[in-house]
Amino acid sequence: MTGSDDKPSDPSKSSAGKAKPLTGSTMGHFLWMFAGGGAESILKIIVLLVLARLLMPAEFGLVGAALTVVAFAEVVGRIGVAPSIVQAKTLTRDHIATGMVTTLIMGVLMAGLVYGLSEPISRLYRMPELTPFIQVFSLLFIIKGAGLVSEALMERSMRFREIALMRLFSYIFGYAAVAITLSILGFGPWALILGQLVQQTLVTGFYLFSVRKDLAFGFRWSTFTSMIEFGFGITLTQIGNYLAQNGDYFIIGRWLGPEALGYYSRAYLLLRQGAQLVGKMGDRVLFPTLASIQDDKPRLQRALNRALSLVAMTQIPLTALLVVAAPEVILVLMGPQWGPAILPFQILVSVLFFRTAYQFVGAILRAAGRVYIAAFWQWSYAAMVVAGAYVGQPYGLWGVAAGVSVATVICHLMGLGLVHRFIGLGTGASLRRMVRYTALGAIMALALFGAKAGLLSFGVEGALLLFVLVAGFVATYALLFFMAPAVFGEEGEVLSEQVLKRLFKRRGQSS
């Protein structure tokens, strides 16, 4: 039992009772996470380019298989403590103290469990060489467990600028620097593993230091049970999400082997940068924001429609570019030995919008307290992913990619139905906007196909072709965004206004 009292100790509630407009504040937080996430995504692509030329596909496949094991145990070990801290209407010091002790204990327990089961897990994957990688990765549970509550406190306090900078710094000087250096020195797959460990150690240290004055240690059973009541539903949701995100990895690793998993996992990593840039970064901002207005249904409705529109506005045009330029993206960034990843990449990236948007639907369900509905939804998605991957694996990687893509589309549409059924939020406007942006994406795809065919006829290919396609796409999109934002509807005009406002404000301050 902690020595602290039950009085509220919530640094994020500086003006309780006042309903702040979401458009300006949330968009500002999102832009910070978007900028930080965008820089991190670009860095990841650059690092992937370098590592793909230093390591073999089978080595990436082995590390990818080990990470699926670590990710599952990590989800179980969290038991939803951090989300319960973000979602709590009134946060007390007991919540923080109990959360710290709980996550640390669970981190140690999961580390020991994964280490002890490393050999049976390797046999399950039919990869005996996987055992030492899993054993070393077990350290991640202790490192991550130490920083979960600190990260949740920062998210609750809307300190997204600091989070973005911390994540960026830890990636550059943790994973990127260590993994590339060790790869050059001939460490093989160990370079990726040690890079992960250093990166997580850095980011956990930053989180702990940033909220050091708010941290507490102790345990109160009544506080623990109240957190777990909400957190268990979150954990069920996260386990379902884990299975959905990693079920195809298991199918490929067990039936098609580590080399095939290496091709698939790198293709997935590339497309995930686009999905995470908007989806995951937006979810980190949207969940605490929505949790603060969880009883205000009209505002939830507006937030959902605006978030999904933002996803469609950015991801559907980006999908057109990536599908058309996929051969150049894979071969230029990763090298000619990665050719088998092209078709899976094109299939997976074709549903980029749905892969991104479903994260926002999940944020709505969690923020409204419908954690068990969210869990049911995620488990349904996981079942569809595993089934799709298994049915597709006899046809190779393209079959797995097709099965997973169908599951992703169904998942998003099912999530919209659940939001409408159990929260009462209309989704018709979101679907209509999705159709509009699909038409815009189709026009862009046709233009890109025509431009690519023309450039190829003049002998432009490889890196130069990729540069011209990307530069033309960015220039066209930026021109439309700033000069004709009405093309993107109401959300385009709002976002353009917010971006320009911040640019001119910064310029005024500098002058």
Could you explain the architecture of this structure?
This protein is mainly alpha-helical. It has one domain (about 20-500). About 80% of the residues lie in helices and about 0% in strands. It contains 20 helices and no strands. It has helices spanning about 20-55, 55-80, 80-85, 95-115, 120-125, 130-135, 140-155, 160-185, 190-210, 220-255, 260-290, 295-325, 325-335, 340-350, 350-365, 370-390, 395-420, 430-455, 460-485, 490-510. The longest helix has about 35 residues, at about 220-255.
Outline the secondary-structure elements:
Elements: H1 22-54, H2 57-78, H3 81-87, H4 93-116, H5 118-125, H6 131-137, H7 139-156, H8 160-184, H9 189-210, H10 221-255, H11 258-291, H12 297-324, H13 326-334, H14 342-349, H15 352-367, H16 371-392, H17 397-422, H18 428-457, H19 462-483, H20 489-510
String of helices and strands:
HHHHHHHHHHHHHHHHHHHH
Largest β sheet strand count, sense and barrel closure? none
What is the number of beta strands?
A: 0
Total of domains: 1
Strand content: under 5%
The unreliable regions are: 1-8, 11-24
Report the total helices: 20
In angstroms, what separates the terminal alpha carbons? 55 Å
Helix content: over 70%
- The residue-averaged pLDDT reads 84
Rg value: 23 Å
Q: Which structural class fits the helix and strand makeup? A: mainly alpha
Shape: globular
